[in-house]
Amino acid sequence: MSSSLWEPAPLRRVFVVGVGMTKFVRPGAENSRDYPDLAGEAGQKALADAQIPYSAVGQSRGDSTCGQRAIYHSLGMTGIPIINVNNNCSTGSTALFMARQLIQGGVAECVLALGFEKMSKGSLGIKVSDLSPLLKHLGVLTSLSLLELSATPSCLLDVCWYAGKEHMENMCMRTKIEHFAKIGWKNHKHSVNNPYSQFQDEYSLDEVMASKKVFDFLTILQCCPTSDGAAAAILASEAFVQKYGLQSKAVEILAQEMMTDLPSSFEEKSVIKMVGFDMSKEAARKCYEKSGLTPNDIDVIELHDCFSTNELLTYEALGLCPEGQGATLVDRGDNTYGGKWVINPSGGLISKGHPLGATGLAQCAELCWQLRGEAGRRQVPGAKVALQHNLGLGGAVVVTLYKMGFPEAASSFRTHQIEAAPTNSASDGFKANLVFKEIEKKLEEEGEQFVKKIGGIFAFKVKDGPGGKEATWVVDVKNGKGSFGNDFISRSTDKFTKAVSWENGGLLYCSPKGLAFNVKEPVNSREQEQMRPGMLKCSA
Length: 540
Prior knowledge:
35% of the residues lie in helices and 20% in strands.
């Protein structure tokens, strides 16, 4: 009689091949939409980015319990399994985690992870009920006689402020309120170049510290806002990547770990431990171990900065510095451009916004753009390895490491890529530039009206530049209100809306004056995503 040990098949490599997201907006804003529309935009952008049809997707992970409605409404009904996920603020990355597992184990070849959220105004004021995942946190605050000091009904805000205060006390006040304010200042500065960010305003450090106090030293510019928005990521196996020729854009998930609260989270009566420090630390440790990488190998990071206090604590949990030295890292400038890491180049939750179900997937999208070199003016030079940290109190955390899966293919692709964030001079020397200058003038005057009339995005590829040089103008008359900045011109004019049709795989766009542009190659979706909403962009 013979016996043999059963050995499981090796886990397969998994890649992110398409990402997309909406602009995050405040709840109740005029340009806020219902969640199926938000989810649809994010999902369609991810499919366009991957350049695959929805029929190629084998499974989907949706947010909360609304995935079917969102997907049916915008992407169609194909009979694929749709699984709804809810894990508090880490919902988006939990969907990503589950999608990766399906592909790793050979259950699926391609999975869409889709996250979205429609929030209420003032969501930070949610009271803790007997069904709340924060009951244990509330118990610790009570046992430490801290709850009676609270003037707010939000346990979430309480624990995050107390965690920062505890860090200051542990470090004999070497960690100061200015260090937390510097993080808020940094994230708002980063968001200026992110067209998807809820806020794109830059502030001085003094303005951050002097802004409205939310809880003691935590001011409103150090706290994440409530937000509406959606984000999506398409994950695929290596065989799928090769079948569809996606090597140039495939971002590999090198390692990924999900952790929930440990006994130390509550037994040690430490508010720092209670806000996810130990589970973040353990998840990061496992990722480093599985990937063979260290914090020194990382270039760019998106982490869960629901409050500035959380970001500083997470520096230490991720091993970017020794415990207690987060303030020193801030003082060195090792959390921004020119420093050791660029942390939250998107603006983070503090400035980009925090629609709970979408946050983890928006982080994934940002890091994929960074690794592909497609992040425009917020691009981290030479970014090769990225880390994502998404935390949900009550409690789960997901830490993920990324890099390009096929670097040689990606490098070759970039050398032929149209410039993602051109300067104003990109269109100089093109005969067609005169036409678009006229459009620019008209759009300044009536941009918002054209958005209401047209509701579409159009691309114009022109080959009349110096020496036969090509340029692509992208006109977004679907989003925004028609404003334009130094780099992008708003909206389209009614002179160019008389006939729009698809012909021979390209976009034929005609005007009553007989002008026509045939776009045989639709504009690169990543270039389009770097536009501010409602803008006309020229890439040369």
